[in-house]
Structures are given as C-alpha cells and as structure tokens.
Amino acid sequence: MQIGKILFPISSLGIGMRIGIWVTGCLRNCKGCANPELQYFDKSKDAPVDDIYAAIKDYPFTGVTISGGEPFLQAKDLAILVRHLVEDDKEDILVFTGFLLEELQSKHDPDIDYVLSHIAVLVDGPFIESKLDKHPLRGSTNQRLYFFKKEYQKAYEDYIADGQRIDYIPVGDEVHFIGIPFEGFRELYPKVNIRDSKKEDPV
Ligand code: SF4
C-alpha cells in the first residue's frame, strides 16, 4: 500500500484519539486540494499492508482515519487494512474518498464492498473549492457523511457540533496541519496545540 504519512495521535478528523493514515495517489486534482503532495503515486512508499499494520497496531488509538490521496484506488490493500482493524476490534474507521458512494457501489468490487460494509463512517465526494464548508469533517458542502455503524453516530454528531479543529503536529523541521482548514488556523500555531471553536481543552 502506498502510504504518504501516518500520524498519531490526532483529534481533528474524528472522535477520540485517532491514528491518521494518508495514502498517496489520486487522479482528481481538485482545485484547492489540501494535500496536493499526496496526489502522486509513489512506488518508493509502497509497503506490505501486513507490515504497516504490524507497525501501528500497538499504538493506543481508539479510531482510525484513512485519507489521501484516494484510498479506494488501492482498494485491495485498503480492504486488507480494514480487515486487520476489524479483527482487532478497532471498528471506528473513517474513510475519506473523492468518489461518490454510488460510484463505489456500482463497481461491484468485493474489496470495495468489504470496506463499505465494515467501516464506521464514509465522507464522500470531491472537494469543490466554490462550495467551501465550515465543518470539522468535510471541506465542501457537496461532500456527504454516511454513518454505517449507528453505535458511533451520536458521538460523531456531538463532535461535529463542537466545530472545526486542527492538530498541529511537529515532525522534524516541519509542522503538519491536520484537519479541515479554517480561516486563520496557521496563525494559531504555536499559540495553541489544538484549536476547537468551542472548547479550549484538547480531547
Ligand atoms: S479527491 Fe481529495 S486528495 Fe484527491 S485531489 Fe480531490 S481533495 Fe485532493
């Protein structure tokens, strides 16, 4: 699976203390994409999913967010990753995709079907800059949230009601800004570690 980055802990892309996994490779080139460096496929970043999972499985995460890039362009590996997580009872899995749910379903791909039937939340649709949203889990208003596992829905709705937030994660000389960007978020670093529009304390 071609992976661009893995970060832990993050609280900006879903409930609880999460691990974030970003794949490389996407064919859409949405104007204003938040992760343009992840649009390119990069074979040098290819690693067996079993190895990737072995490296992350002991982190104390309560949920997993998979983004990119386009995760469903690596559907076979994505399904293996989701299977590992589900087998270890880590079922709060949120996946971002530029595809519409209907497009994914119409492929009748067993790997895609497996992922869709085992993840907790899907955020679908391409980012459309002219439809910018102020929402913690989607960049533009055309994107839709599907709560496939109803036991997580209330917690996600409460999380969404709390507003947008950004994780500022220093890695070497860089700072990774993780979350759905909002106006002025860059200026907040390093004054705060986690910015939430209604809460002062990190989750
Ligand atoms: S689908 Fe997502 S990763 Fe791909 S170009 Fe659009 S915003 Fe970027």
Structural category: alpha/beta
Indicate the CATH class: Alpha Beta
Radius of gyration: 16 Å
- Major β-sheet, in short? 6 strands, mixed
List the bound ligands: iron/sulfur cluster
CATH topology: TIM Barrel
Low-confidence stretches: 193-203
**How helical, in percent, are the residues?**
10-25%
Number of domains: 1
Strand order of the largest sheet: 1-2-3-4-5-8
Distance between the termini: 30 Å
Shape: globular
* Residues in β-strands, percent: 25-35%
Number of strands: 11
What is the element string, with H for helices and E for strands? EEHEHEHHEEEEHEEHE
What would you say about this model in short?
By secondary structure, the chain is of the alpha/beta class. The protein has helices at residues 49-56, 75-87, 101-106, 110-118, 153-161, 185-188; strands spanning 3-10, 18-23, 63-67, 93-96, 121-124, 132-135, 138-140, 144-147, 165-171, 174-178, 194-196.
Model description:
This protein is an alpha/beta fold and 203 residues long. The chain has one domain (3-196): TIM Barrel, CATH 3.20.20. The chain contains 6 helices and 11 strands. The chain has helices at residues 49-56, 75-87, 101-106, 110-118, 153-161, 185-188, and strands spanning 3-10, 18-23, 63-67, 93-96, 121-124, 132-135, 138-140, 144-147, 165-171, 174-178, 194-196. It has a 6-stranded mixed sheet, with no helix packed on it. The longest helix is centred in the middle third of the chain and has 13 residues, at 75-87. Mean pLDDT is 92; it is low at 193-203. The protein binds iron/sulfur cluster. Iron/sulfur cluster binds at residues 26, 28-30, 33, 35, 39, 68-70, 98, 126-127.
